[in-house]
Write a structure and sequence with these properties.
Elements: E1 3-10, H1 14-25, E2 29-32, E3 35-40, H2 42-55, E4 62-70
Antiparallel strand pairs: 1-3, 1-4, 2-3
Helix pairs in contact: 1-2
Length: 96
């Protein structure tokens, strides 16, 4: 079962920041600055966490994963916006 996650990161060094951004583009939809919406199964979640762990400095950087529910249920409707409307992606296919 796929879960929807909001993944946000605070990476201090510009080189690591670029690497994390490129890595995240392979797993989810870029929403804002350092925020991605990802639909992941358990294998993909474990893989993403491991790959991010290799890229960040564990003393300076932080990555947060917020599980907002199943992709087919609450996860599809739980993001609300003020100002510019949030438009959920339409059935995207990710090739990793």
């Amino acid at each position: 079962m796929r879960q929807t996650y909001i993944v946000t990161y605070d990476v201090c060094h510009p080189k690591r920041l670029r690497k994390v951004f490129k890595l995240m583009k392979g797993y989810g939809v870029h929403i804002q600055l350092s925020v991605f919406r990802c639909e992941l199964d358990l294998r993909e979640l474990v893989e993403l966490r491991a790959r991010l762990a290799d890229e960040i400095d564990h003393h300076q950087d932080q990555v947060l994963f917020v599980d907002i529910g199943p992709s087919e249920g609450r996860g599809a409707t739980s993001i609300r916006a003020l100002g510019k409307a949030y438009v959920a992606p339409e059935g995207i296919a990710l090739i990793i």
